[in-house]
Amino acid sequence: MQLIKGGVCAPRGFMAGACHCGIRKSQSKSDLAIIYSKTKAKTAAVYTTNRVKADCIFVTKEHLEDHQAQAIICNSGNANACAPYGRENAEREALACAQYLGIASEDVIVASTGVIGQELAIQCIEQGVSKIELQEDGSNLAAQAIMTTDTRSKDCAVRFEIDGIPCHIGGICKGSGMIHPNMGTMLAFITCDVSIDAHLLQKALVENTKRTFNRVTVDGDTSTNDMCVVMANGMARNKPIVSEDEAYVAFKEALKTVMENLAIQIASDGEGASRLLSVTVYEAETEAQAESLAKSICSSSLFKAAMFGSDANWGRVLCAMGYSGVDFDISKVDISFASQYGKIQVCSQGRGLDFDEKMAKKVLSADAVQVLVSLGQKDQVVTCWGCDLTYDYVKINGDYRT
Amino acid sequence: MQLIKGGVCAPRGFMAGACHCGIRKSQSKSDLAIIYSKTKAKTAAVYTTNRVKADCIFVTKEHLEDHQAQAIICNSGNANACAPYGRENAEREALACAQYLGIASEDVIVASTGVIGQELAIQCIEQGVSKIELQEDGSNLAAQAIMTTDTRSKDCAVRFEIDGIPCHIGGICKGSGMIHPNMGTMLAFITCDVSIDAHLLQKALVENTKRTFNRVTVDGDTSTNDMCVVMANGMARNKPIVSEDEAYVAFKEALKTVMENLAIQIASDGEGASRLLSVTVYEAETEAQAESLAKSICSSSLFKAAMFGSDANWGRVLCAMGYSGVDFDISKVDISFASQYGKIQVCSQGRGLDFDEKMAKKVLSADAVQVLVSLGQKDQVVTCWGCDLTYDYVKINGDYRT
């Protein structure tokens, strides 16, 4: 398996494009994207667990009842959630895309991201859709158009083989705020040219989501619009994957690579983030235990603020473990911080060590910081990803709507 | 019942004092407090639910096995949690207080607050304790000595009657960071001169804690050192309360008034807070449902940051309700904001209203802002308290230890 360029257009038969249709005021910011497959694709999806769901989620769920789709349309600048005419406008967005591409409305996935509760300017989308020129290398155009407070567009693609036949998986995503474990917690659109049974595609997506996107947290808020979609159009012409055989395992692993890479990009570009935090809990008794502890640490505002200040306040790591709700033996806990500048242990067997504060500050000043927590029990390991809590998070969210 | 001055010294027979013993570097900041009852008092307590507990919690629990105490010693500047010699130092702190006052060590409650994981300078306490002059009006000295990042000392006292006999309840507390529902989530020391059975005292404390301190959130972090203690020395000479009669109800109500008042002071002085938020969920089906929804709103970083910016981003209110994990009918939800500057409805039946943005900004610019959420179901009402998320929260916690 190797990382390649091309994002969602890396797999055979996919095109993408975007335009500024007018939902956003700034002309320089595109706000409408389409991803298109030349043939109908088996399609799997996971959605937000928030009880309050945007109408595009309901429309997409209905359109995917047959596990097939041929295009994704996504607007930024307005979430079309809790908004007047929400359902009607989500359907009109799908229809506009379908008519432009000459496909059935039921084969269109609709996604929206942006402010909640305001009416979607559907006329902008209906009039703007024809401005989109689909391109064989248009992945980055789409990736830019779905950004909200993201500072960087996010994509990833891999090439791997099934029975000697080259296959490709590519993805784009947007993250930033409202990022928390439990569901996609963002928008991610993944394409592949693999031929695979729809139920196995869904299974691989669900299992990988648990270990990738659901292990990222930015601020503990789960959005109303989250969605992760995988389209598989079969154009690689591999022998169709219809059981959990070696080819399925290879596919699932390649898909996980793309998803994990995108997940880490989301954490690293979390709203206002100045650094990526990866928290690894190891020597755990069970995966569930390690995951709960790692998520609790990654979600602690106090810990995240300390990381912003490069302050080796490991007491907050232990404290966050303590209120996670899971059992562990405090007297066996070791804690270290690591980065490109070195590694420093700060806690041994649940008690503080005398450590070199200057060295710790240096380690924690890197753009990517690891927190390593050993439970001294068995051999389970889980890593979760997050970011620090900064002035900019407060600034961005103190006046998001204007 | 009337509010009076005097804090923990308002009830008969209680004295308090404080000194700078040297745990904190700044000479101008006192760091050691004692609250003393002239006679042994029936004593009840609730503690942090964090699995990682400071050693003072364990020592206090043991000392309260007989439900009696005569003094509280509390240091700030060091939590004595996960620290070398933690257990030994907590015991030595109790002993130093006992020897100074000429009482048994088992009648001393020990509390600590401050940084986690560093060794407590126990010699400072042992040598400093004799510098404390207990005073009949020393409540504010103690209230100041237990502050950490609090910007204001916090106290409250009430006078009420049992069978025509005047009784008094007074309290001091500290809050600021690491404040979240589930347990005291801070330090609160409450005194009263009521004569009451120890088990009824405990019962009143536990039930009131659920509806007061446990409805305050600052940052979602639950500390290792939280403790709320009530001492009742019986010096009011009321007929002892030994059953859940009218006198018990009057006592419990008066105690709740003090606890709620202290709780709101904690929310209002949350770390970095610029305004107090009170979130009321009404017309709910059950109290539990209303409480979960109100807490979820109050805990949302996105909502808190919007309140800092006086941004009427009500979508974040609905979003936080959606991921709270409890059921409600979105199509019946109404949302309004209110303050001294007026009231403005922003959402009706789950959909956004066209509202006057200028007026909303004005309403949200007040020091105390109310969020009113109607579920349109039955008649249950719950209010939770919190504060906004500000630059100062990040600043304070970005470098807390230095």
TrEMBL record, chains A, B:
Biological or metabolic pathway of the protein: Amino-acid biosynthesis; L-arginine biosynthesis; L-ornithine and N-acetyl-L-glutamate from L-glutamate and N(2)-acetyl-L-ornithine (cyclic): step 1/1; Amino-acid biosynthesis; L-arginine biosynthesis; N(2)-acetyl-L-ornithine from L-glutamate: step 1/4
Record-marked site positions (Cleavage): G184, T185
Binding site for substrate: T148, K174, T185, E271, N397, T402
Positions of the catalytic residues: T185 (nucleophile)
Catalytic activity as recorded in UniProt: L-glutamate + acetyl-CoA = N-acetyl-L-glutamate + CoA + H(+); N(2)-acetyl-L-ornithine + L-glutamate = N-acetyl-L-glutamate + L-ornithine
Compartments reported by the entry: Cytoplasm
Pfam families: ArgJ (PF01960)
Site label Involved in the stabilization of negative charge on the oxyanion by the formation of the oxyanion hole, positions: T113, G114
Chief location: cytoplasm
InterPro entries: Arg_biosynth_ArgJ, ArgJ-like_dom_sf, ArgJ_beta_C
SUPFAM superfamilies according to UniProt: DmpA/ArgJ-like (SSF56266)
Keywords (A to Z) from UniProt: Acyltransferase, Amino-acid biosynthesis, Arginine biosynthesis, Autocatalytic cleavage, Cytoplasm, Multifunctional enzyme, Transferase
One GO MF term: L-glutamate N-acetyltransferase activity, acting on acetyl-L-ornithine as donor
Enzyme Commission number(s) of this protein: 2.3.1.35, 2.3.1.1
Family per record: Belongs to the ArgJ family.
Function text: Catalyzes two activities which are involved in the cyclic version of arginine biosynthesis: the synthesis of N-acetylglutamate from glutamate and acetyl-CoA as the acetyl donor, and of ornithine by transacetylation between N(2)-acetylornithine and glutamate.
Subunit structure: Heterotetramer of two alpha and two beta chains.
UniProt protein name: Arginine biosynthesis bifunctional protein ArgJ
Lineage, broadest ranks: Bacteria, Bacillati, Bacillota, Erysipelotrichia, Erysipelotrichales
UniProt gene name: argJ
